[in-house]
Specification:
The complex is a heterodimer of chains A (about 110) and B (about 120). With about 110 residues, chain A is mostly beta strands. Chain A contains no helices and ten strands. In chain A, strands 1-3-8-7-6 form a five-stranded antiparallel sheet, with no helix packed on it. Chain A has a five-stranded mixed sheet with strand order 2-10-9-4-5, with no helix packed on it. In chain A, strand 4 and strand 5 form a beta hairpin. Chain B contains no helices and 13 strands. In chain B, the strands form three sheets. In chain B, strands 2, 4, 5, 6, 9, 12 and 13 form a seven-stranded mixed sheet that branches. In chain B, a hairpin with a 2-residue loop joins strand 10 and strand 11. Chain B is globular. The termini of chain B are far apart. The mean pLDDT of chain B is about 95. The chains are: A mainly beta (about 110), B mainly beta (about 120). At the A-B interface, strand 4, strand 5 and strand 9 of A face strand 5, strand 9, strand 11 and strand 12 of B.
Chain lengths: ~110, ~120
């Protein structure tokens, strides 16, 4: 069955450092992968989408990579700020199948 | 403003008392879905709908019903709620593009407690 793993439940980093979150998937080949941010008690909010033929995508301080050989996506936040503290979810998507989310990584940026 | 609305936002009920959580979107999206979120388990899909009158089970459909009579609305029905359905529920919608669903827009969530 399809499986999505995000590297850790929680990640603590110092303000100003780069946060790197990992999303691994098995048993399917997504055409693209989405990343979402979720704050406590709120619905996830879309951040970035990367397609299988794209190696890297950037948006302001965010960078996403997609390695279809390793079946992995990395999500980077550079110059992290306390306001970046949230849970980040990945969602690989393959064809017309329902979107399935990883359990998320809770990022805490410490001032 | 493009949005997904859910009502109620908070609900405390008792075992066995039927309830409906409404979901509505104003973006003319074909795809709508319901998720529940529990600590340590992440977002799990309950039901989804690719278009009007088309619904399919997600990963955890037991104890839930849905209907899609209109494109904009996708209510979630709990015919006989039980305490294990206490959870945070999210409705989401998106357009359908070649290759699958587009960006998901989520509602604000409904926190349900079943006593």
């Amino acid at each position: 069955s399809q499986k999505i793993e995000q590297n850790s439940e929680a990640l603590n980093i110092q303000e100003g450092k780069t946060a790197t979150l990992t999303c691994n998937y098995t048993n399917y080949s997504p055409a693209y992968l989405q990343w979402y941010r979720q704050d406590p008690g709120r619905g996830p909010v879309f951040l970035l989408l990367i397609r299988e033929n794209e190696k890297e995508k950037r948006k302001e301080r965010l960078k996403v990579t997609f390695d279809t050989t390793l079946k992995q996506s990395l999500f980077h936040i550079t110059a992290s700020q306390p306001a970046d503290s949230a849970t980040y979810l990945c969602a690989p998507l393959s064809g017309n199948t329902p979107l399935v989310f990883g359990k998320g990584t809770r990022l805490s940026v410490i001032a | 403003e493009a949005q997904v609305t859910q009502n109620p936002r908070y609900l405390i009920t008792v075992t066995g008392k039927k309830l409906t959580v409404t979901c509505s979107q104003n973006m003319n999206h074909e795809y709508m879905s319901w998720y529940r979120q529990d600590p340590g388990l992440g977002l799990r899909q309950i039901y989804y709908s690719m278009n009007v009158e088309v619904t399919d089970k997600g990963d955890v459909p037991e104890g839930y019903k849905v209907s899609r009579k209109e494109k904009r609305n996708f209510p979630l029905i709990l015919e006989s709620p039980s305490p294990n359905q206490t959870s945070l529920y999210f409705c989401a919608s998106s357009s359908l593009v070649a290759g699958g669903t587009d960006t998901q827009y989520f509602g604000p969530g409904t926190r349900l407690t079943v006593l």
